[in-house]
Amino acid sequence: MEFHVIIFTSYLLLAHAVGVNGFPMDDLISKLPGQPDVHFRQFSGYIDVDDGGFGPSLFYYFVEAEKDPMNQPLTIWLTGGPGCSSVGDGFSSVGPFVTTRNARALEKNLFSWNKVSNLLFIDSPIGCGWSYSNTISDYNNGDDSTTKILVSFMQKWYGKYPEFKSRDVFLAGSSYAGHFVPNLANALLDHNKQSKDFKFNVKGLALGNPLLRKKLDALAMYDYFHSIGLVNNTVYEQAKKECKTLDENNYSSKFETNWTKPCNDLIENAPFIAFNSSDRGYVISKRFDVQRDPCDMKKLNDLSLGKELTKVSHGADMCAAPRAQFYFNLPEVQKAFHGNRTSLSYSWKGCYSDKFKFNENDKNRDMLPALKRLLQQSVHITIFSGDVDALVPAVGTLQHLYKLAEDLNIKSTKEETWSYENKDGGRKYSFGDLLTFFIVKGGDHHVTFSQPSQALYIFTNFTINRIHNESSETRRALGTNPSCLLYTQNSRPNQAYQPKPPPPPQQPQKSSLELIVESLALSQEKLQIRIEAHLQDMDKQMSQLAQTVGCLELQGKLSSQIEVNPRENVSAITLRSGIVVTPPIPKYKSIQKGKKIGYSGSQKKIDEVQTDPIPSPYDMPPPFPSRELEDHDEEIRKWKQ
Predict the structure, then answer these.
(1) Which of 150, 158, 271, 512 is the most buried (most CB within 10 A)?
(2) Tens digit of pLDDT for each residue in 74-104?
(3) Do both 165 and 234 map to the same domain?
(4) Is 175 a catalytic site residue?
(5) Per the residue annotation, which of 138, 366, 389, 444 is the catalytic one?
């Protein structure tokens, strides 16, 4: 009896640590203080980038998609600064919650991006939010070190969440994320070129008000102020004259060139002239949003007294970010988040902790070459900027993108208005098929905060739906016959499945944990055998379909690796390419020929192959039939004897 208890206890401990679907259950957030009830899960914790424990440890917050999370893509959110917390930013932008007016509880964010994607927020670089290092030199951040650490973080994060290895990945962020996001995307793609194993499935970028050419963005501030009448002609012409040493054509080679003192003084004084104020705090706030009145930070202490703090201006609550900062400093919140494991002696800050440092020269880097590399690798890029942002004005970003299109020899550019809910949304610029730029009417430096519904609309329709749905429903084969537009270039070997040898006989000295591991291995082996049987049926069906349309090369061209979603019935198989297919088992849906079969001349090709919808993982029966569960239990009983 005692032995049985040990076995059962060990099994529970193992199941709790790993979870039934491979997720780290120690990182599961049961519920945040004051949080409304939701039907998606949240996880947060640390990823130790350095195995030795002396290097960087990045804090993350992962939120499942509201619906069907196991079939939705993953979006990585990085905010700017540099030096601001992406996790904290999520509570006033794209995350699932925003704080109530007294900052003691949460309410649902009606425009959260987890409506269409799983979300991963990463506090980066070192010193942001709850991310830290035991090595002081790691706090000397820069573009290159940040990218290197993030790549290591993602590799280890996928180790915790292997279910997401085959998912489409989107990278998004705002402001200085115009550096972080393109740099990370290129680094992940560079990893793919070197890796013989796992590859990141990078599909697209979504950038809000991105800093791309800092010094030219500063000059564009004068263009913007002049266009809306905040500086007169005399001051404007003087600035253009003194600061003419840099332009779109020579920036990439001279980004470290210092301005003359008169030019530098004009740039520094521009916002004070435009807003007719000597109050530095007020002027900085107005650069973020020239239209709305900022939150009165003198009333921040009201939250400690249990009072409300709010300032609604032109439809946006300008006190949302300060309230989030107050919420993150509540001890019960930090405990629920599994954050602050180092027991920081200073308050949590949304931006610029006491130790944070960043290379100033990196801020002036030209980011157009990074965007160019991504576009040349067919990565979609969607950019949106608010038209009341004076920090990174849309007029400057537009000029950068025209220059980028010129360098790429993109001739097909299009300018048009776009609408949202039958209202004027602003201007839309299309540069070929891969690059789109939106100017959002009424949006400030953080469109996701000031115009969240428009930001969600853009992300959903021009990033997720445009890319993810296409790649999920119609995977294109890149094999010998490019006209067979199905699946991927990877092929599954035709050799028969060779099961692993059975576990060795029980030895008296084996521990209870070893017995549990062997039991799980046996279950895995049985599952693999069933999967192979399904794949053989699938091969037959795909071969028949290929013969029907004249694409005989499709025989055996399924992905070489597969993954089974543990939260779904095993009849729904997720290929390494990310496709979810269902073998022809009578009681479940099966692959059907697409609604459209296109023909071009004498050459036949598949234009579209669709799969019937698969039931939600939560509605499906257990992955093992009862008989197999009985067999599994019988094996356990034999080992106990």
Answers:
(1) 150
(2) 999 999 889 899 999 999 999 999 999 999 9
(3) no
(4) yes
(5) 389
